[in-house]
Amino acid sequence: MMKSGERIGVHSHIKGLGIRNNEPLPVADGLVGQIEARRAAWLVVQLIKAGKMAGRAILLVGPPGTGKTAIAVAIARELGPETPFMALSGSEIYSAELKKTEVLMQALRKSIGVRIRERRWIYEGVVDKVDYKFDRHPLNPYVQVPVGGTITLRTEKETRSLRVDSNIVYQLLQKGVEEGDVIWIDEETGRVTRVGRAKGAANYDVGVRELVDVPSGPVYKEKEFVYTLTLHQLDEMHARSESLLSLIFGAPEYREIPPDVRAKVDKTVKEWVDSGRAELIPGVLFIDDAHMLDIEAFSFLSRAMESELSPIIILATNRGFTKIRGTDVEAPHGMPLDLLDRLLIIKTKPYTADEIREILKIRAKEEGVTLDEQALEELVRLGTERSLRYAAHLLAPAKILAEQRGKSSVGVEEVREVSTLFISTRESAQYLKEFEEKMLK
Fold first, then answer.
1. What is the mean pLDDT of the chain?
2. Residue ranges per structural domain of the chain
3. 266-297 as b/e: b if 16+ CB within 10 A
4. Within the chain, how many helices (H) and strands (E) appear?
5. In this predicted model, what pLDDT tens digit does every residue of 387-418 receive, in sequence order?
């Protein structure tokens, strides 16, 4: 059941391609139907895992509302929970602040993760005792400031007292560290991390602090930390650190990342990978409405496919023959033929009434909407005659209407009423024709 105020994404219910024993089930992992498309996507996943997708990309083609985005999300889910997924609409590349190629480059690098492993020497334990020393502020004798202190840390193996400087005392006070808390102190940087409250040390009946186990082993130990960043995050970090103008005079940070910064990041990441300190996690860049890209963007993507550091690129479009943006040339899906030749094209088909019924059941469950049988069948009819998206859009307003009437489930009356209040695309077109003369042009 959806909690009050909880946001449900359109594809939040998708967990994978719904493949069992190399065959797609009719309904599984949040996907319904599209058997051929899902079987093709499954083969693509196997190609990606085998490292045989270099120089190629995927194109999903089909009418609106046939699950193209859902299949792209499912491919990313199949590749693993940590696989970066970056979604972009073709029209988003036209920014007033960034060049088209810069928008695409940033999207590409947001789609590649770097899992970094770092071993650091730390002091870890339960805080048994803290003793802070204060003195007068050098500029204000009426203010007391910490100048150092002593902290006692305990593990299951030993207890150790440490003398700490004012910087660490400031952090302990700022983070509200108390006796009974489990903390880490990085030996090199002096950074303090509060892990949680040690089990058995809670002094409150109700509290919000996470309970953690008492650390084992010695207080002073080497510990491995694993965290994941994207190439774009590393780009931004390096750009800020190299911008002395920004650091000294407060000038605005780079909106466009300089090429030399990206080159340094790539070199550093390769060194980390070669030394075993990091590993690359190629993700998925999904570009919907790909027909909105222009000839320059298509050329950029063709070149990006051949790069060593390239994510899996998935394009989607619902257009047939149309002009390639920026040219007078008409081509399938509005894309250059030389790019189409490098794409694995997967087609999607309109859903049947039975498939629409299953999809609406899934969406209703995700949004916490209880439908009676007649209401469900009315939505299936609307989905078949008008569109699946239109029927799914009616779920939330129908639920609100039912709640206002004191009903625990949505009935056919609520569905029919909201369908008269919110019209479909087809009815909107008819309305325009009827009042064409009165509409502004």
1. 81
2. 19-111+283-347, 118-227, 353-434
3. beebeebeeeeebebbbbbbbbbbbbbbbeeb
4. 15, 19
5. 888 888 888 888 888 888 888 888 888 888 88
CATH superfamily of 19-111+283-347: P-loop containing nucleotide triphosphate hydrolases (3.40.50.300)
Q: Which fold has domain 118-227?
A: OB fold (Dihydrolipoamide Acetyltransferase, E2P) (2.40.50)
Q: Which two tokens stand for residue 137?
A: 């502020």
* Tokens coding 231: 């190439």
Mean pLDDT of the region 51-56: 78
Is there a contact between 198 and 126 (Cβ–Cβ < 8 Å)? yes
Count CB neighbours of 200 within 10 A. Answer: 10
Distance CA 367, CA 357 (A): 15
Just give the CATH number of 353-434.
Answer: 1.10.8.60
What is the rounded distance in angstroms from the CA atom of residue 122 to the CA atom of residue 99?
Answer: 45
β-pairing verdict for 112-136 and 85-89: unpaired
- The per-residue pLDDT for range 98-127, each reduced to its tens digit, is 788 888 888 888 888 888 887 788 888 888
Q: Is the pLDDT of residue 6 over 50?
A: no
CA distance 125 to 185: 9
Token pair recorded at residue 165: 């400087």
SS3 191: coil
Q: Confirm if 187 and 124 have CB atoms less than 8 A apart.
A: no
